[in-house]
Specification:
With 236 residues, the protein is α+β, with helices and mostly antiparallel strands. The chain contains seven helices and ten strands. Helices cover 35% and strands 22% of the residues. About 14% of the residues have low confidence. Keywords: Signal.
Length: 236
């Protein structure tokens, strides 16, 4: 009986050693598809062993895996992906931004230049499409009347338009609204909004998309060192 137990233990040790030998540390790097930018904070999980790691600032990762294991890659604002390990070679992973999918469903009208339509009956005054708080078109047009008025009245109207646009940006870039897209909270969220709040020209551009804009800004924010993730301050 003792001899039988010893043989079983010996075989078990051989199996453990073989498993340890088959398991190796794989190295890889994660890039953004189309730009070749190194991606940090991407979660890499071995779905067979449940072990995971996170890519560093250079997009590098190290994880234990063997041939046949399935790795999963997941990161904020990027489409998740998986990969079956075939050999021990260094891996190069390319992840597609979710923003590229959003761009494909945008409805555009190349023949219409928003904000530059002119009506001859209105003596060349600009006709613009109306937007909601998120910067999306909500239907209808806004016509800037003003011909026949003196320069002071026109200037007053321009200031009023700027104030309205500024309020639209303020609503779109509220903490509550931005937090729906960006995983920041508290002071970090306040700093992010202060750093990347768009100007009126950018916000009113026909191609402006709030979600894509926030995703692009968040990638720039992540690339900054921690001490730079604050709005610039003016020295007294």
């Amino acid at each position: 009986m003792y001899r039988y137990v010893s043989i079983v233990r010996f075989l078990f040790l051989i199996m453990v050693c073989c498993e340890a030998k088959a398991q190796t540390t794989l190295q890889g790097r994660v890039y953004e598809y189309g730009t070749h930018i190194h991606l940090q904070s991407i979660r890499v999980t071995n779905l067979n062993t449940k072990q995971f790691t996170i890519t560093d600032t250079a997009g590098l990762f190290y994880i234990n895996a063997k041939a046949g294991d399935l790795l999963a890659f997941k990161g904020y604002a990027y489409q998740a992906d998986t990969l079956v390990i075939i050999n021990k070679n260094r891996l190069e992973i390319y992840m597609t931004p979710e923003g590229k999918t959003l761009k494909q469903v945008n409805v555009t009208a190349p023949d219409i230049k928003t904000g530059s339509l002119k009506d001859a009956n209105l003596k060349g005054n600009t006709v613009t499409y109306q937007r909601d708080a998120n910067g999306a078109y909500k239907g209808g047009i806004a016509i800037r009347f003003g011909y026949g008025k003196d320069k002071k009245a026109l200037r007053s109207k321009q200031l009023s338009d700027e104030e309205i646009a500024d309020q639209e940006i303020e609503d779109a870039f509220s903490e509550k609204n931005v937090a729906k897209t960006i995983p920041l909270r508290g002071q970090e969220l306040k700093d992010f909004i202060a750093m990347y709040r768009p100007d009126i020209k950018t916000f009113k551009a026909p191609t402006f998309n709030l979600t894509i804009y926030l995703n692009d800004c968040y990638k720039k924010y992540q690339a900054l060192p921690p001490e730079k993730r604050k709005p610039a301050t003016l020295n007294p």
